[in-house]
Amino acid sequence: MDFVLVHGTTQSPASWDRVAKLLSAAGHRAIAVDLLTPEDLPAEGYAQHARDQYDGERPVVVAHSGAGVLLPSIAEALDARAMVWVAAYIPDFAGGKTLRDEVQALFEPEWIGVDPTADPAKASEFLFHDCDPETEHLALDTLRLFAPAVLATHPAGPAPEIPSTVIVPTRDRTLKPEWMRQAARDRLGVTALEIDAGHCPHMSRPAELSGLLTGRA
Hints:
AB_hydrolase_fold, AB_hydrolase_1, Pimeloyl-ACP methyl ester carboxylesterase
C-alpha cells in the first residue's frame, strides 16, 4: 500500500519521518510530499504539485491540519483509494463556508493569531505539549510556515466520493476536538477515530497513528 503524506501549515515534510519509517517497516511505501512553492497556487495547482512528486497508483492520502483544505483536490488528482484527515480541517462541502469563515468555531481561542514558527515556546505549548523532550526537540526542527491564501479562501466543491477516515486527537490545543468530531459526522458521514494526543500525533504518537493508518487502509 502507498501512503502519500501531506504536511500542515506549520511543519515541513520532515514532520512525517517517524510515521513514514514505521509504514515502510510494515511493508508499505510512504511519500511525504512538499507543498512549498515559490508562489501561491490555486488548490488544483497544489494538487498537481503533489501529483508531480508521486509515481505510484491509488494511494491513501493523509493530510494534517490546514492541509485538509487541499486534501480532496490532492486525493482526486492522485486517484486515491482513501483519504485520512489527521487533526485536519474538513471543508464545508454543502454550505460553502471557507476556512476563514470558520476560524472562531474551529480553533481554540488561545491559538488564534499565534505563529509557532516564530515562537518555539508557543509551538511547544500548542503543538508539541504531549511530546517527550527528545521528540519535542525533533518536532521544533520541523517548524516551517506554509500559509498560502488558498487555505483560508478556497470554497469547497462537492464532497468527494472517496472513502474517508477522520482521526481526532483528544488533547488538541489548536483545533477543537468536538468541532472535528461533528464535522466528520455532518460533512463526511463518518464517526471519527480518536487518539490520545495533541495536535501533532505524527510526532508524539507515531506508532499508534501508523497503526490506525494501516488498520483503516
